[in-house]
């Protein structure tokens, strides 16, 4: 599965980059394939391992913020691996045609 999620600390002011970095650090240290852009972090793996990483990432932000908002979207497709790369490669192939 691929999960795209964002964790937003609330009640800590406008500058939330440091707290968001805490969540991204958890994802990167997980060892699972991942990608971070301006809006979401995507992570790929089996259901239980991905959700455990998301939970730890939220907990990292929750430790420093009185409230946390989470947006999550999941693509559950058994048997597919390397979806983070292959899905983008497919779109790029069509764009260059």
Would you summarize the structure shown here?
With 97 residues, the chain is α+β, with helices and mostly antiparallel strands.
Walk me through the structure:
By secondary structure, the chain is of the alpha+beta class. It has a single domain (2-95), classed as 2-Layer Sandwich (Alpha-Beta Plaits). Helices cover 43% and strands 26% of the residues. The protein contains 3 helices and 4 strands; from the N terminus they run βαββαβα. Strands 2-3-1-4 form a 4-stranded antiparallel sheet, covered by helices on one side. Strand 2 and strand 3 (41-44) form a beta hairpin. The longest helix has 16 residues, at 47-62. The radius of gyration is 15 Å and the shape is globular. The mean pLDDT is 95.
Mind sketching the topology for me?
Layout: E1 2-10, H1 17-29, E2 34-36, E3 41-44, H2 47-62, E4 67-75, H3 83-95
Antiparallel strand pairs: 1-3, 1-4, 2-3
Q: Which CATH-level-2 architecture?
A: 2-Layer Sandwich
3D shape: globular
Give the helix/strand class: alpha+beta
Q: Cα distance, first to last residue?
A: 28 Å
Helix content: 40-55%
The number of domains = 1
User: pLDDT below 50 for ≥5 consecutive residues: which ranges?
Assistant: none
From the 3D structure, determine the CATH topology.
Alpha-Beta Plaits
Number of helices: 3
Please summarize the sheet with the most strands. 4 strands, antiparallel
Which range does the strand content fall in?
25-35%
Q: Tally the beta strands.
A: 4
Instruction: Look at the structure and give the mean pLDDT.
Output: 95
């Amino acid at each position: 599965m691929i999960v795209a999620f964002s964790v937003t600390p609330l009640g800590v002011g406008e500058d939330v980059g440091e707290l968001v970095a805490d969540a991204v650090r958890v994802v990167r240290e997980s060892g699972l394939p991942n990608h971070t852009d301006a809006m979401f972090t995507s992570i790929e793996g089996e259901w239980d391992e991905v959700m455990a990483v998301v939970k730890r990432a939220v907990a990292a932000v929750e430790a420093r913020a009185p409230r946390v908002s989470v947006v999550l979207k999941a693509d559950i497709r058994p048997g597919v691996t390397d979806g983070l790369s292959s899905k983008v490669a497919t779109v790029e192939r069509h764009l260059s045609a």
